[in-house]
Amino acid sequence: MAANKVSHRIAALGPWLRAELKRRKLGQLRTFTAGVILAVAGLFGGLDTVDAGPSVFAADEAHSDGEFTLTIARASVVNELRAGRRIVAPAQPGHRYLGVVSTVRNDGTIPGRLIGELQLRDQPQSSSVGVFRMIDGSPITQLGPGLEEQLVFVWRIPDSAIHPDLTVTLRVTQKRFTELLVTYGRDWVDSSSDYAEITLPVTVK
Amino acid sequence: MSAPIRRSRPGLAAALAAAPILVAAALLWQHLPDSTRVYGPFDVPGRFGVQTSGRALTVTVDGVQLTPEVQGSARWANPPPVTAAGAWVVVRASVSATERTAMPSVELRVGPNTYRPSDRFPSYTLGYRADPGITQHGAWVFDVPPELFDPPGADPFELHVWPGLDDRLDDRLVINLRGHLDSTPGTVLVVAPEVTG
Fold first, then answer.
1. pTM, full prediction
2. Confidence class for position A84, pLDDT limits 50, 70, 90
């Protein structure tokens, strides 16, 4: 009996809908169609918020990219990198080392890769040397969740790029913790469009 | 008297038929299983102090220490103690392979967080390679925020060990360490793995 009732109601739905469609004007039908398209797009994520465009942050100001919180302190250029008496990177003719000192905290739940976390902009002749702990100059490639360290990000730059009023621009790409589509597992993935930048004066030593 | 002619509207019928299919597809899309659940490892549960064996590896954990400083110690070198960014968790264990040589991978799960062994003690870390019939005894050292161990303590607190880099569709030893963390205020020494067998 209940099944008959349901099928009767479904059968009555067709004529009712036809009558409603006849009564509406073309403009109303267009609005209705647009609403249906938006609703379907929304079901598949088409209406998700998109945060695009760069933001700017300053020295000694904490900035979060989702995975790490960085507080960038200063930038300087030196001839060679030393940790006490140990030489981390020797002097090279025609090149010097740019170091950017930053406190970094991992806000995620998995170890975070530090290589590439800061991208040096507008210095095409530069190459990354690595990331080192300020406390003892030891190299560091990843930071565990919940940990905070003071680090220096180092690049090798040509002498020709150095002048008294030198400033550097660094980019931090926004990240999202998501399931990996090509390989296996979940990890932090860089946004293709969302990033923040900081411009720092450079002390030449 | 004839019955009223009912004009068929194939477009409307198609729309009505498509609506539940679209809703079902959207629901499925929102609830697709994570690849870690589809291709995850086969966990082999283990306990502190008890030998745990999987397809490729056998591990026995016999010590877990929490300390602010660790010093590597060897006959050929005497490096200075290293202070952790958080605190060191030193997991002492014996490792061997069951049938053939394997490269163990290891991680420490502390509450919601996952940690890999620190890169600060490369000469003193256990288990770059495990061989059958040969047992290595040594330590894995992890840098972990100490507040995670504030009462009532992290849950879970466990060591994961598996052969190779990829843990998909293979045995993974999951050794429960809860209740066995020993706080040590001084410097803890770690030495290169001792080999027997």
1. 0.80
2. confident
Taking the Cβ of residue A52 and every Cβ of chain B, the question of whether any pair is shorter than 8 Å is answered with: no
B4: pLDDT confidence band, cut at 50, 70 and 90? Answer: low
Cα gap B50→B32, rounded to integer Å: 38
Q: CA of A95 to nearest chain B CA: how many angstroms apart?
A: 29
Looking at the complex, report in whole angstroms how far the Cα of residue B125 sits from the nearest Cα belonging to chain A: 17
Q: Strand B157-163 vs strand B104-110: parallel, antiparallel, or unpaired?
A: antiparallel
Residue A109 near residue A86 (C-beta atoms within 8 A): no
At A11-46, the pLDDT tens digits run: 777 788 778 777 777 777 788 888 888 887 777 677
A115 in contact with B at a CB cutoff of 8 Å? no
What is the per-residue pLDDT across A125-149, written as a single tens digit (0 to 9) for each? 999 999 999 999 999 999 999 999 9
Phi-psi domain of B166 (left: phi exceeds 0; alpha: psi -120 through 50; beta: other): beta
In terms of DSSP H, where are the helices of chain B?
Answer: 10-30, 35-38
B106-133: pLDDT as tens digits: 999 999 999 999 999 988 888 789 999 9
* ipTM exceeds 0.85, yes or no: no
Q: Does A190 touch chain B if contact means CB atoms closer than 8 Å?
A: no
Q: What phi, psi does B40 have (nearest 5°)?
A: -65, 170
Distance in Å, alpha carbon of A185 to nearest chain B alpha carbon: 5
What phi and psi values does residue A5 have, to the nearest 5 degrees?
-60, -45
CB contact at 8 A, B85 and A149: yes
- Spatial contact of A75 and A198, defined as CB atoms under 8 Å apart: no
**Mutation for testing the B interface, residue in A13, A33, A36, A109 having most B CBs under 10 Å:** A109
Question: Radius of gyration (Cα) for chain B, nearest Å?
Answer: 26
